[in-house]
Fold this protein.
Amino acid sequence: MVEHQSQHSRFVLEQDGNECVLDYELHGTSVNFTHTYVPFRLRGKGLAEALVKAALAWADKEGLKKEASCWYVKKSL
């Protein structure tokens, strides 16, 4: 389950004792998704995709303009 840690400007998904993370920066009415990280041994399981889906849904719900400097998020915009 993806957890939004707004105090740290990130979305986190814990898997097998490891954290998968999507970081963002909030600028007024826009959000820039800056970095996505999934530990190497957990890649290919759709975890980054789950983080991106949760983050984009949050941005839509908040009415934020979405930007991405992270290449992985950028391909979903």
In short: The chain has a mean pLDDT of 97. Residues 47-62 form the longest helix (16 residues). The first strand starts at residue 3 and ends at 5. The CA atoms of residues 26 and 32 lie 6 Å apart.
